[in-house]
Specification:
This is ZIP family zinc transporter. The chain is mainly α and 271 residues long. The chain has one domain. Helix content is 76%, strand content 0%. The protein is built from ten helices and no strands. It is globular, with a radius of gyration of 18 Å. The model has no long low-confidence stretch (mean pLDDT 85).
Length: 271
């Protein structure tokens, strides 16, 4: 099975990898079939863990290979990294500014983006969908980079990134489905809305892979762009949400470090 996967077209590899990450989002949302609430300390820890995974993935899987590729292509490595990284952050800021969304646990008066009459459930799904855009893009770019046959891009590193993103998607699916269930939505519909937040990942993954295959000269920028977008999500959303309760901060901090360590192990050992 592994050999068969390695022989696939890189775009198809990216699609399958992001279907996996989408599936883990659905698994997290599926908790609504077994319980109507999740312990808050556990939820905060899982969000902290997800933040750690994304921070590690941003460096080990995206920034470091992007800098090395820039150097191999004769670019100015630090300039490529800064332009791509800040470009990813600016892109997410603009998306955050204009896309209507609502973060779990907040009232409708705290919704962000362009004002709309959309339902609360739709806005909650869009909040997590916003997180998933850079994650799917990062996986797609990573598999596209392998096809470019550059030394710093390996299939093991791309697979490690997909696994890491998948692991941290579990609490994101739960973070959408559980609040909807507590508000009286049926288990089936809560699950559907929770898993729907991850559907953007296969789309973004295919776009990312196609983009770098067609324009390999911008690959270092694309890797750093994905890293910047992911760090924006971590700093603007995951860390504040996970550390919103003072009594859980120490536990969440250790969970964040644990997530970072696991992603680092995956990337270094598989990459």
């Amino acid at each position: 099975m592994i050999d068969a996967f390695l022989q696939l077209d890189p775009v198809l590899q990216a699609l399958l990898a992001t279907f996996f990450t989408w599936g883990v989002t659905a698994a997290g949302a599926a908790l609504v079939f077994f319980t109507s609430a999740v312990n808050q300390r556990f939820m905060d820890s899982m969000l902290g863990f997800a933040a750690g995974v994304m921070i590690a993935a941003s460096f080990w899987s995206l920034l470091a290979p992007g800098i090395q590729m820039a150097e191999n292509l004769g670019h100015i490595p630090w300039l490529t990294a800064v332009v791509g990284f800040m470009g990813g952050g600016i892109f997410m800021r603009l998306t955050d500014r204009f896309l209507p969304h609502l973060h779990p646990g907040l009232g409708m008066d705290k919704s962000e983006g362009v004002k709309t009459t959309w339902q609360r459930s739709t806005l909650l799904v869009l909040a997590i969908t916003l997180h998933n855009i850079p994650e799917g893009l990062a996986v797609g770019v990573a598999f596209g980079a392998v096809a470019a046959d550059l030394p710093s891009a390996t299939i093991g590193g791309a697979v490690a990134l997909a696994i890491g993103i998948g692991i941290q998607n579990f609490p994101e699916g739960t973070a959408v489905a559980m609040p909807l269930r507590r508000e009286g939505m049926s288990r089936r519909k809560s699950f559907f809305m929770g898993q729907a937040s991850g559907f953007v990942e296969p789309i973004a993954g295919v776009i990312g892979a196609l983009f770098v295959l067609k324009m390999q000269s911008v690959l270092p920028y694309a890797l750093c762009f994905a890293a910047g977008a992911m760090i924006f999500v971590v700093v603007e959303e995951l860390i504040p949400e996970s550390q919103g309760r003072y009594e859980n901060i120490d536990l969440v901090t250790m969970a964040t470090m644990g997530g970072f360590s696991i992603m680092m192990i995956l990337d270094v050992s598989l990459g």
